[in-house]
Amino acid sequence: MWTPKSSLLLLCSCLAAISAVAAVFELLTGEPDWGFGPTYLLMGIAIPLVGVFFYAAVRDARANM
Q1: pLDDT tens digits, residue range 17-59?
Q2: DSSP 8-state class, residue 6
Q3: pTM over the 0.85 mark
Q4: Positive/negative CA dihedral, 4, 7, 61, 1
Q5: How many CB atoms lie within 10 A of CB 15?
Q6: Which residues are CB-neighbours of 13 under 8 A, at least 6 positions away?
């Protein structure tokens, strides 16, 4: 069932996934705009957040069925 909370969590998951993909592409160019350290940090934070937010969205949606 759709709820505003699950929609917000899914939106956060999508934004984290976009950030992770952008960080990977920045690293593949050879010279990231923010440097290697911050880009790796962004990727290291964004990738786990994708799973956490997605899991929370699915769990909230199932709880409201």
Answers
A1: 999 999 999 999 988 999 999 999 999 999 999 999 999 999 9
A2: H
A3: yes
A4: positive
A5: 14
A6: 49, 50, 53, 54, 57
